[in-house]
């Protein structure tokens, strides 16, 4: 009996498979014992692994080892930056009530902002254009109108839904002129586009392992040593006193290897998946001529194809494709089982119907031309059935 065909996995923006080299590192360290805060030999050996991993991640990202703070992943890192920096700034200057961000951010940033707003902070969202790019002029005006009242700016490097890449160095420079800390969620950017912490001029940068071929449950906040943050977790005082908790040494070691591989292969990886992505978009357009590509047509992640299919419900399309062995994403939130239109597309000026009729196809290091072939073969009949269901 032959094995079933391999599903065409096109949801790498959600998570991507662990690389074999990373699995080897992870497995090797799982057999070792040692708390990195213990003083005996096993503890010192674990501490050595942690600090060497910190050095390797820093070297790959243009940072200093002391700037790499290990966390459980992107959500925790975003929360630590958004809440921790805002709290610290407000504790020394209560007038720092404003926090600037954008409506296209990941919910790991937007939800902490809502939480801060409920407790007295004033959250202001910078407008974006129809491609999801931040309006730099409007941002600069908003910030400089009353810079003394701003606690933090948080703008993502690359959007997780539509793939638009922001001019981070330009945005960070405006904040730096006024001594305002700048945080960026670079979860989707690391390994996909060039990312250099020092050169970008940002003060804090979020990344996570499972988006770049590493394990779940480990990430980092790269933060300038001069950046003051209040901790979210209290306990042992690990990670510069802002992130207490026993470190997962096997995951940290695997994370470091994943970062090295992703950053080292970035240029060739981007060229390969960009070719697959462009082929996918071109061939889907040939089958569904009225499909719309969302996001910036040039300044975008190489593996991202976010498409709107007029007259369709994205959830219906997703399930129809899944039945044909094609795995992708709507990229939208779902609350209490009720599908919601993408907040990113709404911020870009799309109608709710357009936002609900969209799918995200995201390619990664394990993607092949066969995955693109599978999408092209399945998309025509799926769109036809999805449109018929709404008649």
Order of SSEs, N→C?
A: EHHEHEHEHEHEHEEHHEEHEEEHHEH
Task: Supply the number of helical segments.
Answer: 13
Question: What would the principal axes of the Cα set say about the shape?
Answer: globular
Helix content bin: 40-55%
CATH class of the largest domain: Alpha Beta
Range of strand content = 5-15%
> Which residues sit in consecutive blocks of at least 5 with pLDDT less than 50?
none
The major beta sheet can be summarized as: 7 strands, mixed
Average residue-wise pLDDT: 95
Briefly note the CATH topology name of the largest domain. Aspartate Aminotransferase, domain 2
Structural class: alpha/beta
Rounded to the nearest angstrom, the radius of gyration is 21 Å
List the helices and strands and how they pair.
Blueprint: E1 8-9, H1 20-30, H2 41-61, E2 68-71, H3 74-92, E3 98-102, H4 107-117, E4 122-126, H5 136-144, E5 150-154, H6 168-177, E6 182-185, H7 197-200, E7 204-208, E8 219-223, H8 249-264, H9 266-287, E9 292-294, E10 304-308, H10 314-323, E11 326-327, E12 334-335, E13 338-339, H11 343-347, H12 352-356, E14 358-362, H13 369-389
Parallel strand pairs: 1-11, 3-4, 3-5, 5-6, 6-7
Antiparallel strand pairs: 2-8, 7-8, 9-10, 10-14, 12-13
